[in-house]
Amino acid sequence: MAGFARSDSTSEAPDPRPARVVRIRKYESGDAEGLFEAASESIEHVFPWLEWCHPGYRLQQASEWVKRCDSLWKDGREYNFAIVDGSNRILGGCGLNQIRHEHRLANLGYWVRRSEIGRGVATAAVQELTRFAFSETNLIRLEIVVAVANEASQRVANKAGAVREGVLAARLLLHGKPHDAVLYALLRPKRSAHREPNENRSRKETDS
Ligand SMILES: CC(C)(COP(=O)(O)OP(=O)(O)OC[C@H]1O[C@@H](n2cnc3c(N)ncnc32)[C@H](O)[C@@H]1OP(=O)(O)O)[C@@H](O)C(=O)NCCC(=O)NCCS
């Protein structure tokens, strides 16, 4: 999987931390510890929006997730990626899930570890994930569904070029409570060839 992205050291404000490259890649068998470490430091800012990253999160769950990602990918059900720096250190995660093959539609999600937020990591990852979706799958539409109160995530969706389509009432259930959510969409560029399902090696042969 080609990674890509961008050095985030070129913003106008000086950044005291060393520059590094951000890219996305499939989870690898040795990722459980790095993922666990990244998630463990991030509970405070991720848990309100993504319930899997909770105070009881354990290494075993990270390990199970890494294994599960492989089978989900092979089955064409989800495409999950680690976001990593130039040293292959996990900075967060992103992925395409809730895929509806009949409509060639997927949900796009992301999170970034506490020590790396505010450096453009999520935006770069979303842009790379979008390139993956429109070059390696036949998906036409990617949706980002963000709780109205989650301003950082809305900013990411905007910066990554997603179109704000509106607010959906009670669209997200978080910690047992319904929340209104902003719906963003990224659409396959017109010039980008539509892959036929049997051309796409990353997903199931048939729509369901
Ligand atoms: C949302 C999240 C992924 C952003 O990651 P990140 O790497 O910091 O994102 P970026 O640096 O690319 O961009 C963040 C932007 O949000 C802005 N931002 C951060 N906190 C903000 C806030 N409370 N209100 C408004 N904007 C905010 C930043 O200033 C930045 O915008 P800028 O570049 O114009 O200054 C990260 O905070 C996170 O993991 N949140 C918890 C999980 C989550 O919400 N996932 C999305 C679910 S829909």
Can you describe this structure?
The protein is an alpha+beta fold and 208 residues long. The chain has one domain (23-199): Aminopeptidase (3-Layer(aba) Sandwich). The chain has five helices and seven strands, in the order E-H-H-H-E-E-E-H-E-H-E-E. It has helices at residues 32-40, 43-46, 59-74, 121-136, 151-159, and strands at residues 23-26, 79-84, 90-100, 105-112, 141-147, 163-174, 177-187. A hairpin with a 4-residue loop joins strand 3 and strand 4. It is globular, with a radius of gyration of 17 Å. The model is unreliable at 1-14 and 196-208 (pLDDT under 50).
* Strand neighbour order, sheet with most strands: 1-2-3-4-5-7-6
Q: How many domains make up the 3D coordinates?
A: 1
| Oligomer designation | single chain
Strand content: 25-35%
Mean pLDDT: 88
Question: In the CATH hierarchy, what is the architecture at level 2?
Answer: 3-Layer(aba) Sandwich
Percent helix, as a range, is: 25-40%
Unreliable stretches covering 5 or more consecutive residues: 1-14, 196-208
CA(first)-CA(last) distance: 26 Å
* Integer-rounded radius of gyration: 17 Å
Elements, N to C (H/E): EHHHEEEHEHEE
